[in-house]
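> example.struct
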């Protein structure tokens, strides 16, 4: 009989050669063509060499906003859960990768068996004892057809997809924190406008009431003055409620109370607005969006799963082996003559499985087709988000110019109407119209400023966090 080391070495060499020669049966991966135009809008071609993306700190220049975003990225529970999911998927990938190599275990075993007299050679009752200590592997699959490698690749791509999903959550949290902060500042500004309007209209109401007491004004004018005064009072209460809700939402996003030493900005013009986005951007920038990268990794995982499904049609080779010592006497277990080894390869060839393997392959191919459609849909949706943002940005400048001129004109009209009424040369009805027009123009101007800032923020998010 050949000594164990020589046979064991031969078996190990055979295993390694089969393992190294393993290949996958997955189809060659080809990225689907992006079903979108080559560029956004019109303008200069910017498809040159890509520079590193700017950090969000460059895009959001306001110090208070930067601090809030940092707190959100540190404390937000939803983001923390997403990051833990990445670690979970990474651990699952490591579990799958472990199947590529044999698992070596140390084991000890004791067997004690009482034998009746008619089954022993001495025709006397006795006890049979056996002790064994060794190391070995059990049911190790030789990946000749690449089934395990395909599963390993699918698990790896799933991990990459989870990492990109975490980047999506990171970007979304950054944008949402900025959006809520801008909304908070806008609501504070609207609250101040409503309170100032209320104080002004309260003064007008007292003036008209005084004139009514002197017989100069009518009861109708007093009622009209009170109605618009109460309207401003109601608007102030509504905006005060909105400010409180914005602060609560901001506290939820940053995962802690809003810092007491954070400057209380009350005008959008005092906020460092996000950077603007140029036109003529190449649509290839979409490849930087983490949701598109995540969709492509899912497509790669589905493609690799086809290789594992195909390998199920071929024989599965599994190896079991043990090396150790065995003896009937525990005291002699480690003596030189007690060496023991066992090598038990097995081959399983699928013959009849009621169509299980065929159905599994069809499922894998259908999932790949679905992943292609999901990837293309994600690309198209991303392109539309950017295109919509650029269309809005194209006309928002004209809107702001018109709103600014409207605000100036309504302020002038209100000043003239008030002066003419106090001089007794005009009716109070003109003052009422001018007040309402001015209040509406002030609200519209603030809303347009907010829209302008949110538009830049939307483009920042839609382009995956930058465009350089």
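> example.seq
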């Amino acid at each position: 009989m050949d000594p164990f080391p020589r046979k064991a070495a031969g078996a190990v060499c055979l295993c390694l050669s089969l393992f190294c020669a393993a290949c996958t049966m997955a189809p060659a991966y080809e990225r689907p063509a992006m079903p979108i135009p080559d560029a956004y809008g019109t303008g200069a071609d910017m498809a040159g060499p890509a520079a590193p993306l700017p950090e969000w700190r460059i895009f959001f220049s306001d110090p208070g906003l930067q601090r809030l975003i940092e707190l959100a990225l540190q404390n937000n529970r939803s983001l923390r859960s997403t990051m833990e999911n990445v670690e979970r998927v990474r651990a699952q990938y490591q579990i799958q990768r472990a199947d590529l190599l044999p698992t070596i275990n140390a084991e000890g075993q004791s067997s004690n068996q009482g034998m009746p007299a008619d089954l022993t050679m001495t025709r006397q009752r006795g006890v049979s004892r056996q002790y064994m200590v060794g190391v070995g592997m059990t049911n190790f699959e030789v990946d000749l057809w690449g089934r395990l490698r395909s599963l390993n690749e699918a698990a790896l791509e799933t991990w990459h997809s989870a990492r990109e999903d975490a980047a999506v959550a990171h970007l979304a949290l950054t944008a949402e924190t900025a959006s809520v902060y801008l909304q908070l500042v806008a609501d504070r500004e609207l609250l101040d406008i409503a309170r100032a309007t209320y104080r002004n209209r309260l003064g007008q109401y007292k003036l008209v009431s005084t004139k009514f007491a002197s017989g100069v004004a009518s009861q109708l004018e007093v009622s009209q003055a009170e109605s618009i005064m109460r309207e401003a009072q109601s608007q102030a209460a509504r905006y005060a409620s909105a400010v409180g809700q914005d602060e609560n939402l901001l506290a939820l996003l940053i995962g802690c109370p809003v810092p007491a030493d954070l400057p209380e900005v009350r005008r959008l013009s005092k906020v460092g607005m996000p950077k603007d986005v140029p036109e003529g951007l190449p649509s290839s920038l979409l490849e930087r969006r983490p949701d598109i990268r995540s969709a492509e990794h899912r497509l790669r995982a589905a493609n690799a799963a086809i290789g594992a499904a195909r390998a199920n049609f071929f024989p599965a080779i599994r190896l079991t082996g043990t090396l150790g010592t065995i003896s009937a006497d525990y005291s002699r277990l480690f003596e030189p003559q007690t060496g023991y080894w066992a090598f038990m390869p097995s081959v399983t060839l699928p013959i009849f499985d009621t169509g299980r393997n065929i159905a599994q392959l069809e499922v894998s191919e259908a999932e790949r087709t679905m992943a292609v459609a999901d990837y293309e849909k994600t690309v198209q949706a991303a392109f539309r988000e950017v295109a919509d943002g650029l269309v809005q940005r194209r006309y928002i400048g004209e809107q702001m110019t018109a709103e600014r001129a409207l605000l100036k004109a309504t302020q002038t009209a209100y000043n003239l109407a008030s002066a003419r009424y106090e001089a007794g040369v005009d009716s109070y009805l003109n003052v009422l119209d001018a007040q309402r027009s001015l209040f509406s123009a002030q609200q519209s101007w603030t809303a347009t400023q907010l829209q302008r800032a949110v538009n830049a923020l939307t483009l920042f998010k839609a382009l995956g966090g930058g465009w350089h």
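> remarks
Confidence is low (pLDDT under 50) at residues 1-22, 42-54.
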